[in-house]
# Entry
Amino acid sequence: MKSKELFERAIKTMPGGVNSPVRAFGAVGGQPVFIESAKGQYIYDVSGKEYIDYVGSWGPMILGHNDERVVEAVVKQMQKGISYGAPSELEVEMAELMIDMVPSLEMVRMVNSGTEAVMSAIRAARGFTGRDKIIKFEGCYHGHADALLVKAGSGVMTAGVPDSSGVPEGCAKDTLIAEYNNIQSVECLFDKNYNEIACVIVEPVAANMGLVLPKTGFLEGLRKLCDKNGALLIFDEVITGFRLGAQGAAGYYGIKPDLSTYGKIIGGGMPVGAYGGRKDIMSVVAPLGNVYQAGTLSGNPVAMCAGITQLKILKESPEIYTHLDNLGERFRQGVRALFKKYGKKVWVSGIGSLSCIYFTENEVCDYRTAKTSDTKTFAKYFLHMLDRGNYFGPSQFEAIFISAAHTMENIDKTLGDIEAYIDVNI
Ligand SMILES: *Cc1c(COP(=O)(O)O)cnc(C)c1O
# Structure
């Protein structure tokens, strides 16, 4: 009831009543739940209802909400100052930590969001190569910078608009679109735009059109094509970074990108992003080089404290990733078994703590096949699960996030609720 009242107030003062479209319930019907607090694997709405949270603030809360170690570090730093606008030791510590954890990183620059990280990495790639054109993949989301809102995933996909309005043609004309998992589509673009491609940007695991895994050889193929054509390979690890293991997707698949972008987990819940990679490339960034990129609050000490604390825990506790893998596997195998038991075909994809259930009989391997999912069925399923205290992203095309705070009992409870849904509806 309280959520309803808050939403009625919110829509009067904020577009759609939310500060980010992915929080809206347009795709599933109903109105968003307003959150009062969160702890561990649970979130609580303003009416006091508890939910097992499978969104985790869209990725950052990999340790669960309100981890005491992170909170303590933040509170301690707050008492020493919230922002300086001048260098602090924390920024050096953060850079050293990231470089120590991820083999392909030699230099990093902190920013305030994933959007900023990607936008800046692309600017650096263009500055370094002296080329304008970029290749991105249909259904991959890289934040809301103009040049990247072409055939994007996430909320753009849910809204059913392939491209955002308000993006001048000129801003998008150098963005070339390839198909995920289709290396020929990339090769073709390289051939047609000989010596003009600055970079290929990709989500090494596509987590913004549901959850689509790279097929064997796809990422290797991109690496080879980039090398052959003098283009840079950018891994957008805003979701996968420090989630698919301490080295992210690059480590998981054993591919070395030239640049990588980060966000979400590295802020521990604070607004943080970063981009980094080869030293020769990062040396084009101002004040060392001529590619301008700045930020009033970049490397903010409170945000650095949250991020450093979370990253250090991940670095020092490899068992967290084993736990996440086990939870993810239990969830996926459980869902597959349930639908099979009731003779209904769905496509369940996933890796480690990331999963997605598509209501389709097709194998999902790209944007086109992801779109074959029956979103009306998803909406029904979503509302059933919400009612029973399971909070998933309110869209078919968002990933399911599991945190280290989740337990096998949580997963089994959720599987029980899924079975109740199938039993009644199929
Ligand atoms: C979330 C996301 C972004 C954008 O990050 P923001 O912090 O929301 O600006 C970019 N790339 C990927 C892969 C993401 O998932």
About this structure: The two ends are 30 Å apart (CA to CA). The longest strand covers residues 197-202. The mean pLDDT is 96. The first helix runs from residue 2 to 13.
